[in-house]
Amino acid sequence: MERDPIYMDNQATTPVDPRVIEAMVPFLGEIYGNAASRNHAFGWAAEEAVDRGRSQIADLVGARPKEIIFTSGATESDNLAIKGVAEFYADRGNHIITAVTEHKAVLDTCQALERANIAEVTYLPVDQYGRVDVDDVKKAIRDETILISLMYANNEIGTLHPIREIGKLTKERGILFHCDATQGVGKIPVNVDEDSIDLMSMSAHKMYGPKGCGALYVRSRGPRVRLRAQMHGGGHERGMRSGTLNVAGIVGFGKACELCGQELEAEAGRLIALRQKLYNGLTENLEDVYLNGHPTERIPGNLNLSFSYVEGESFLMGLNREIALSSGSACTSATLEPSYVLKALGVGEELAHTSIRFGLGRFNTEEDVDYVVKRVSEVVIRLREMSPLYEMAKAGIDLKSVQWKT
Amino acid sequence: MAYTERVIEHYERPRNVGSFGSEEAHVGTGVVGAPECGDVMKLQLKINPQTEVIEDAKFKTFGCGSAIASSSYVTELVKGKTVAEAGEIKNTQIVEELALPPVKIHCSVLAEDAIKAAVADWRGQGTTKKDAA
Ligand SMILES: Cc1ncc(COP(=O)(O)O)c(C=O)c1O
Ligand code: FES
What we know:
A: Aspartate Aminotransferase, domain 2; 2 domains; B: Sufe protein. Chain: A; 5 helices; binds pyridoxal-5'-phosphate
């Protein structure tokens, strides 16, 4: 009966691919030079490895290698892009447009700029699927707008924004376009030229690479994007991000990109089939299950469902020794606030509390999906038997009309 | 968050889950919390009208593992107590028994409120019945 736990939380992080580990190992041991040491073979070996990594990353997204700036992860990339642009282009304008469902690394950075009176920020609403409307973006543009920051794919619900259309718009208007593509790169085709992206955040640990290693793509021509550095020091990374490079991490990140590129199409197809199987299995076994996010415009590995009448934390508690998932329920968060992303879609708070994110990834199999369908169905049925809301709904009581005593 | 053993135990083997049939007399029902807050507890107490002793208790809870454990524990705690004694139960007792962390204290408060609501409901019925008679 005991089996290895199933990891199905691949939007939180991904396991490191064994092929990535293999590529990294020499750089944790015998090849230890500093990539900035120009005068000896130890440095050259490290520099060569960094250059290769840079090319592998650039190739995956249609960039030129020198446009890749290494960082500690997407949080830092988001900070560098937004603060760096706001500070550098301050004389051109001070207005930034983003959306309410962005990752906290973008939202908190924008709020910090507002508090410091460096920028004014418009937070666009999203539709019921989590997408911004291109017309809303258009209407929000002012003369002072210098930057639009929108994510490729949402980390909770997987929804894709109409990135290409927004890129076209920003290009026409001469506004810089930053895209947090942390959940998109390696999962779906992303091309900085075709999408007209000027700055793009990426993170290795969301694509089977190591944690603590990320990159910011910074366009070098058409237009050449400038930034105010946020980390000062030895002037590494063309002065945009000082600090000795994480050689092993970069080697792993590069290898991870290469593998994602080679396998992208087949893997996307496989994950969509697994996702469909998961959705079909669960909705056949259970009633009152609702999809959060867009039915088709979403990353292949994300399925976000609300299981009415069953609170998310108690749901996860029933499975956490066997299956790793995550929930938008308030009870799972330190702040006791339900997911702000689901709230923004207009999903009622009561459904936000019952939401579960299934994050499928490279190492999930059909067998995993069968097992998850079986166990999730059992847990939901058990908890519904324990749920006063289920009982009331079955008795024909409209839960919305009840006067709750809080 | 790691759960304490007592919470897991109640979650996996909850005591007294269910509802009394609507035909049963002398049952007080308390429903507290709200779906938007992520927690709703229903506690029912079957009370002997002569002795005011709680003879049976049942619960249903929508909420986190700690909320389920708190309500399960409360059904055990109140059985055999008089209504007056049950009214004395404080949420701190639940917190201690289940070793709840600070973020889960409100789940125990809800369980305390559920007892009070069920007792109030039972008392309310008593008076309406007497008035009717
Ligand atoms: C969309 C998005 N942006 C940014 C981040 C932060 O990435 P990192 O963990 O590399 O700092 C994440 C991951 O949590 C994410 O999903
Ligand atoms: S019911 Fe939400 S934290 Fe316990």
